[in-house]
Design a protein that fits this description.
It comes from Rehaibacterium terrae. The protein is of the alpha+beta class and 234 residues long. The protein has helices at 16-29, 60-80, 83-86, 106-111, 114-124, 227-231, and strands at 8-10, 33-34, 49-52, 92-94, 101-103, 125-127, 131-135, 142-146, 161-168, 174-175, 178-180, 185-187, 194-198, 205-207, 210-211, 215-224. The strands form four sheets. Strands 1, 2, 3, 6, 7, 9, 13 and 16 form an eight-stranded antiparallel β-sheet that branches. The termini are far apart.
Length: 234
């Protein structure tokens, strides 16, 4: 049995119809702007058109739809990689049999159904801001090898990123894969599929240029709650 690479793809996270509606809304909105990286607009590193939909009232339904789909995928991901939740924190949770607080370990984790696991996951993690992105055929892409963790500012917000995710909103073009450097793995876009992977340098990646058609994606992160939420302000 080969060692896991911690890159998972879940087909059917969104329907083809829902994806097509998001693509159509993207184009009809007139809101897309040049894509940004941590240092600003640098098209030699990332050439895309983006809409940051989080916090926009007209996109609230789409944001909720995407976060709901990602949360389902996150629960599946944690079922396979339970220590992504257990290892960073010494969590105490109610025992499903007695209701008494107990330390969460692998054995207890496996006894939790989704109804009990979901609130624990929501206590530990929060959704990041969502970008809808278009990579233009024969031009667009994110060719710079990068990871998702970096010390950008005093808020340390990018350092709270635990997992990255992408939902592919279309296919029918060549190339355009999400390519992971150390895992030597390319994820081909498939309409409605959800990619989840760790954010650290171990999963350095890039977005290859699509050929023969534009590529549309929704993308963001699963972040830890901030310390004051998890531990209080003491």
């Amino acid at each position: 049995m080969s060692a896991p690479d911690f890159i998972e793809v879940y087909d059917g996270a969104l329907s083809r119809e829902d994806c097509a509606r998001l693509v159509a809304r993207f184009e009809a909105s007139g809101q897309h702007e040049p894509g940004r990286v941590g240092s600003g607009v640098l098209p030699e590193l990332k050439d895309s058109r983006d809409i940051h939909i989080s916090g926009r009232r007209e996109w609230a339904d789409a944001e909720q739809q995407l976060n709901t789909a990602v949360f389902r995928g996150l629960l599946a991901y944690l079922r396979k990689y339970r220590y992504a939740l257990i290892a960073p924190l010494m969590l105490q949770v109610p025992d499903p049999a007695s209701g008494e607080p107990v330390r969460l370990d692998a054995e207890l984790f496996d006894r939790l159904d989704d109804a009990r696991l979901g609130p624990i996951v929501s206590h530990v993690f929060r959704p990041g801001g969502i970008n809808l992105q278009r990579y233009t055929a024969g031009r667009g892409g994110y060719p710079y090898w990068h990871c998702e963790l970096y010390p950008k500012d005093a808020s340390a917000e990018p350092l709270h990123r635990h997992l990255l995710w992408t939902i592919y909103l279309n296919d029918g073009f060549e190339a355009g894969e999400t390519e992971f450097l150390y895992q030597r793995r390319k994820i081909a876009p498939k309409t409605g599929s959800l990619l989840i992977a760790p954010t650290a340098f171990t999963h350095t990646h890039r977005g290859n240029m699509p050929v023969g058609g534009d590529k549309y994606i929704a993308t963001s992160w699963v972040l830890f709650q901030r310390a004051e939420t998890l531990f209080g302000r003491g």
